[in-house]
Amino acid sequence: MSTRKEDLPGYDVIIVGGGPAGLSAALILGRCRRRVLVCDSGRYRNHAAHEMHGFLSRDGIAPSELRRIGREQLQPYGVEIREVTVAEVRREDRRFELTLEGGERLVCRKLLLATGLVDRLPDLPGLAAMYGKSVHHCPYCEGWEVRDQPIGVYGQGCTGISLAVNMKTWSDDVVLFTDGPASVPKAEAQRLERRGVGVREERIARLEGRDGMLERVVFEDGSAVERRALFLKTTLEQGSDLARKLRCKVTDARGVETADKHEETTCEGVFVAGDASKDVLLAIMAAAEGADAAFGINCALQEEDLA
Fold first, then answer.
1. Helices of type H across 32-126
2. Which of 154-190 are b and which e, b meaning 16 or more Cβ less than 10 Å from the residue's Cβ?
3. How far is CA 119 from CA 116, 136, 248, in A?
4. Which of 36, 105, 171, 199 has its C-alpha lying 20 to 30 A from 30's C-alpha?
């Protein structure tokens, strides 16, 4: 016998995603005495990272340890956490009905998507084993650790050029690997030359190193360039399709669009925080966005309660 909607477990807010954004929002909402559920799929963008940087008071902490502390600090406020994936979501009037993997259904008044992003890595032999150790996508997170060392940048076009120029902040020895003809406009070529960035256009055969640590970039002709770290711009995809299912506006350039200053999307009652909104992609920014979204959610709930 199917469960009637009015008999389903209900929450003020369900947060989809248990990273810094989701946990930060849960903390604020729990302190607002809201009934909150965090659904954590256990999939995180920084799964390959051993340390997290740039987070005030927690610089160098393991991502898993930050999550442990965050969960621990939610306990006094009655926030419920489940390690589960949300499979489906639909809106009914002013409420949302969620279906979890396994079939359980839940309802809530407001929904926060903190589902993050997924990095699609280039198909480069040797890269996967080094990702998170000596191959990185964020210079703000890992640049300090490889300062003054020989750094490589993998990329094409303006994206690769900009990243290569930016890496000069951390090292004087930067080489841009385009893995094929660079087709660099004259003005950009002059920019690279002024900044002292080398350019190698040969096709790359593989990355070589030991224990996840890069030692050299090997070309198809057998020649190689020694490097100690490689930075690249990954292709980013939404970590969940729930926003699209709810008909929120989602673009390739900006992720899930927000309609106001407190992270509400173009779908009323649905908020977004963290990497899912594709702003500055730092953990501390994700946590800040989670707090901002929580403020907006609680204000919306207060208005409904008064009405």
1. 63-74
2. bbbeeebbebbbbbeebbebbbbbbbeebebeeebee
3. 10, 11, 22
4. 105
User: By three-state DSSP, how is residue 168 classified?
Assistant: helix
CA 247 to chain centre: 21
Query: What is the predicted pLDDT for the residue at 284?
Result: 94
Q: How far apart are CA 265 and CA 277, in angstroms?
A: 10
Kindly state the tokens that stand for 243. 């926003």
**What is the rounded distance in angstroms from the CA atom of residue 227 to the CA atom of residue 125?**
16
The pLDDT score that the predictor gives to residue 1 is: 41
For residue 23, CA distances in Å to 52, 136, 212, 290, 294 come to 16, 25, 31, 8, 10
| pTM for the predicted model, two decimal places | 0.92
Residues 6+ apart with CB under 8 A from 5: 92, 97, 107
Strand ordering across the sheet containing 224-226: 204-210, 213-219, 224-226
**Residue of 181, 141, 183, 138 whose CA lies nearest to 158:** 183
Distance between CA atoms of 254 and 21, rounded to whole angstroms? Answer: 17
